[in-house]
Amino acid sequence: MRTVVFDLDGTLADTSGDLIAAANSCFRGMGVADMLCPARDVAVALRGGRAMLRLGMERLGRGDDEAEIDRQYPLLLTAYAEAIDRHTRLYPGAMAAVEGLRDAGYRVAICTNKPEALARLLLARMGVLGRFHALTGADTLPVRKPDPEHLRETVRRAGGDPVHSLLVGDSDTDRNTARAARVPSVLVGFGPSGADMAALEPEAIIGHFDELPGVVTRLIG
């Protein structure tokens, strides 16, 4: 069975606003001002909680304070879970593309480096969790992207064949995961790092989700 696997943050949805708000709550808890800017720091937000904390700590002159980053990380996750869908929005056409692929007989799944429980909570709050055949997160398996087994097991759980799959993402992590799994990658050009996607040499770049069905047909039939 042919399977299209999606990354979540920065691919299906812009989650940066809620992620940055959670990180800033940690900095306020430390007795300092908000260290991250929702407009300027979108790209780092989509790389995850530790990346945001590290950037903020660097701006405080404490970029090497890994102990504090480790201490703040669970607090960030708690704050994020409490307001996970306040600012998050699905990208235009994302779910129409997912539905179109399902109707055409493809299996669709999510492979994310967000903790699985948070990914499920977010998608449930947005009313789309049930539209995917499988979801795996950073802690679902002993490995995570860019390890190819994360992608392959996601495909298997969706009822597909890893050989006949592709990964839709927004980063070098996604491109490297697909490359390691020896399957095509499709990167989105509309995210905060869209201008950098061509340098990663994916099999395709899309400027809107309207383009995805045709690209999928071309790459995996």
From TrEMBL:
Pathway: Organic acid metabolism; glycolate biosynthesis; glycolate from 2-phosphoglycolate: step 1/1
Annotated EC: 3.1.3.18
Gene3D superfamilies membership: HAD superfamily/HAD-like, Putative phosphatase, domain 2
Catalytic activity entry: 2-phosphoglycolate + H2O = glycolate + phosphate
Pfam families according to UniProt: Hydrolase
Enzyme class: hydrolase
Gene Ontology molecular function: hydrolase activity
Keywords: Hydrolase
Sequence similarity: Belongs to the HAD-like hydrolase superfamily. CbbY/CbbZ/Gph/YieH family.
Protein name in the entry: phosphoglycolate phosphatase
Organism: Roseovarius ramblicola
